[in-house]
Design a protein that fits this description.
Elements lengths: L5 H6 L9 H6 L19 H11 L10 H7 L4 H8 L7 E3 L7 H7 L5 E6 L9 H8 L4 E7 L2 H7 L9 E5 L8 H6 L5 E5 L2 E3 L10 E5 L2 E3 L5 E3 L2 H9 L6 E5 L13 E2 L5 E6 L8 E2 L5 E9 L9 H7 L4 E6 L3 E6 L5 E8 L4 H20 L7 E6 L11 H10 L2 E3 L4 E3 L5 E7 L5 H12 L9 E5 L9 E2 L5
Helix pairs in contact: 11-12, 12-13, 13-14
Length: about 475
């Protein structure tokens, strides 16, 4: 409704539900000419009407409702006023974006329902006044809490009773030593979101989490210095929360020193996301049932250690359609549909062009070796050979990839050999492309195999844009 009538949803919510709402709102149709029969929306079950109203009064911060809009919607009709007043969940979002004057009203009208709370320093000069005391007195109702800056001051005001908090988000703050807040929420917390937050070196991450987000998290060391989150603390988060289902980590979260740390099994992990420059952290855990793997890694300078690609390999074996894009300094792997999701982009830097191409080749080989050691990748695959050969160099990355895919691989435990990526059906290249004799030999060799599908599309194009001046050359080859 907001997308069609953005101005009316706030100022004239009644008019958008009438048959002639536009004419009525600008005065073309007299009020008494409109039928007085009940509006269709008023014939909906109360539960659906409550849901529609909650969608209509949402504000820009996810999960929070704008109390100012809610007060406007109460004036639509007596029925709407009754529905809104009798629905505690509509009053259970407390956001201090526009001050604290509504806190008492929201606490009263939410009638004991669980509270979603957001407090940020930029809107409040200090944590004092009756409103903060009211929130502390109702701390047993907190369901989700987002603190921007204020965790130390607010934690000091809390009593000894455990909290029912399920979601905690901390931004731009520093967690003090032995923070009382975490002792109170430990039994029920399921999701922790830390962004630009500093944790003490003795922080205990044993929280029983299912959802963990670590974004630009730093660590206060014993000597008082602040550094990016240490590898040991990052590893401790994984060890003490084995039931993680969603895990997000960014580029400043862990240093690359992973020597001596055992990989942690995360059997329930469904979605993993990482953005940064430290690919080594991928080897600190293994998830054999992951539904979605998304990561962007920059500044890779050397071949990652064995075990780095274990989680990615498990997901690759389940993807239905796959694209592998090989470039001079990048390797891009993504799914092209289906329930399992892969979106991996690896960038190589700080090396000569030949060294970068060699590193891209090594990573692709290691990923395929890990994925195919227990069985073939069954996905249909599009292969994009977008590397360019440097003048004077004998190394041709595109040709090396073709030779890699032509080399049989042994699958355990049967030890039977088979083709790599047996369902490769599309090859795309940049101009001028590979010599036809190499392509012909590759296609003919695969066509003689009994366990591989045919290559049905070979094309050359002028740009890495997949729809730019493509020329089909399969028949010529």
């Amino acid at each position: 409704l907001n997308s069609y009538f953005p101005h009316k949803c706030i100022t004239q919510p009644a008019t958008i539900f009438r048959d002639h709402e536009l004419a009525f709102s600008i005065g073309w149709i007299p009020r008494d000419s409109i039928s007085q029969e009940p509006l269709f929306i008023d014939r909906l079950p109360i539960e659906l009407l409550e849901r529609l109203i909650s969608l209509g009064v949402k504000e820009d911060y996810p999960g929070f409702l704008a109390v100012e809009n809610l007060c406007v919607w109460r004036r639509v009709s007596q029925k709407w006023k009754n529905v809104i007043d009798d629905c505690p969940s509509l009053w259970s979002s407390i956001h201090t974006r526009k001050g604290t004057r509504h806190v008492r009203t929201l606490l009263e009208k939410s009638k004991g329902a669980p509270i979603d709370l957001l407090i940020r320093r930029s809107r409040i000069p200090a944590l004092d006044g009756d409103w903060i005391q009211l929130l502390v007195e109702n701390a047993h109702r907190w369901r989700s809490v987002t603190f921007i800056h204020y965790v130390k001051e607010l934690a000091a005001k809390l009593g000894p009773s455990p909290l029912m908090l399920e979601y905690l988000e901390l931004q731009a703050t520093r967690i003090p030593n032995d923070c009382k807040l975490f002792n109170l929420i430990r039994p029920n917390l399921r999701k922790l979101f830390l962004m630009e937050t500093t944790i003490p070196h003795n922080f205990d991450p044993r929280l029983g989490l299912e959802d963990l987000h670590l974004r630009r998290v730093s660590e206060l060391m014993e000597d008082g210095t602040v550094h990016t989150l240490s590898t040991s603390k990052f590893h401790e988060f994984l060890q003490t929360n084995p039931n993680l289902r969603i895990f997000y980590v960014d580029y400043r979260t862990a240093s690359p020193n992973v020597h001596g740390l055992q990989s942690v099994e995360l059997p329930k992990l469904e979605k993993f996301m990482m953005f940064g420059s430290q690919v080594e952290t991928l080897g600190l855990f293994r998830a054999s049932h992951c539904l979605a793997v998304h990561f962007r890694v920059r500044s890779i300078k050397e071949t990652p250690p064995l075990g780095t690609w274990a989680t990615l390999a498990h997901t690759l074996r389940r993807v239905e359609r796959l694209q592998i894009d090989v470039g001079n300094a990048r390797l891009f792997i993504r799914d092209l549909g289906g329930p399992y999701k892969v979106d991996v982009l690896l960038f190589v830097s700080d090396a000569t062009d030949v060294d970068r191409q060699d590193l891209v080749y090594s990573m692709l080989k290691d990923i395929l070796d890990e994925a195919e050691k227990d069985g073939q990748i069954s996905a249909r695959v599009e292969l994009a050979l977008f590397a360019t050969r440097e003048s004077g160099s004998e190394f041709d990355l595109n040709l090396e990839v073709l030779e890699l895919l032509q080399t049989p691989v042994s699958h355990s435990p049967s030890r039977q050999s088979g083709w790599r990526i047996p369902n490769l059906d599309t090859i795309r290249m940049l101009e001028p492309g590979l010599p036809y004799n190499h392509l012909r030999a590759f296609i003919q060799a695969r066509s003689n195999g009994s366990d591989v599908g045919p290559i049905t599309d070979v094309s050359i194009q002028r740009s890495t844009n997949y729809n730019y001046n493509r020329k089909e050359v399969l028949d010529e080859v």
